[in-house]
Amino acid sequence: MAKIRLWSVGIALAGLFAAGAGPARAAQDTLKVLLPPDGAAPGWTRDGEPQEYAGEDLYVYINGGAEIYQEYGFRRVVVQDYKNAAGKSLSLEIFEMETPAAAYGMFTFKRSGLGRVIQIGSGAELEDYYLNFWKGQCLATLTGFDESAETVAGLLAVGRQVDARIEGPGDSPELVAALPGEGLRPGSIKYLRGLLGLNNVYPLHTARGLAFAEAVKGDYGEGSFLMVMDYGSDGSCAAAWRDLRAALESSDRFRKSGNAAGEIVLFRDAQERFVAFSPSGSRLVFAVSPGADAAIELARRAAR
Q1: Nearest-CA neighbor of 35 among 165, 138, 171?
Q2: Per CATH, the architecture of 174-302 is what?
Q3: Sign of the CA dihedral 93, 99, 103, 109?
Q4: 10 pLDDT exceeds 50?
Q5: Which residues contact 37 (CB under 8 A, 6 or more apart)?
Q6: pLDDT at 260
Q7: 16-167, what's its fold?
Q8: What average pLDDT does range 129-143 have in this prediction?
Q9: Which of 31, 59, 264, 299 measures 20 to 30 Å from 167, CA to CA?
Q10: Which residues touch 86 (CB under 8 Å, ≥6 apart)?
């Protein structure tokens, strides 16, 4: 059932692989060592041959959507379908990313935050007939084709076999800790590496001042969310904030909204939400909320 899909699903590789009882070396030039063999997940066998794509060939495999993988840092992907005797089927895709942070970022990008948290890998979410998890440099998406209990059980069984074959650290990027814990909805966290990711969660309708090194976003209820963008140095952040502020002040989508104390600058966006910006060392913080006070307070909490 090998075919070009219109949706992007995946798992990224850790750099060291565990195949069966012993580890496979990173020098192996294939991701196939991560694929569970027939019977490893009871009742499930491979359906067809695996496919692998590397580098720019990702655009051949994914018809739309490959760009976001490239923005995070893509290396290669392997794809394998599975079936059981009852005619159920599922698809496993494995993406090797450049770093664990890239794998974590793609995991946060792909999950909805509304599914069930599963203890697989370094973080996993099961929603309907989709299972996403990440571990090391790996992001895994397993896709069933119905919501039956048998299919969901197959997703979990195959997923756990893949998890057992991946070795690597599972710590989320340090920047995630910049989000204040009180009121944060954990499933809402998005880790970003560029404009494609940023525009997916909150478009600022400009590229000026947005060449950040990494960013993280989290929801805080009642339509409020917080974004922390790190530019690597205080000087880079100050220059970026000057450019971004000038772009927003000249934009027809944002308008200044009174004055906020200290370093905080307040705007209103096209949906009449308040957006509070606060430069803080190498980081630029901004909070979006229906209320001005809520936006200012959230931005202040994240400023260090």
Answers
A1: 165
A2: 3-Layer(aba) Sandwich (3.40)
A3: negative
A4: no
A5: 46
A6: 64
A7: Protein Transport Mog1p; Chain A (3.40.1000)
A8: 96
A9: 59
A10: 150
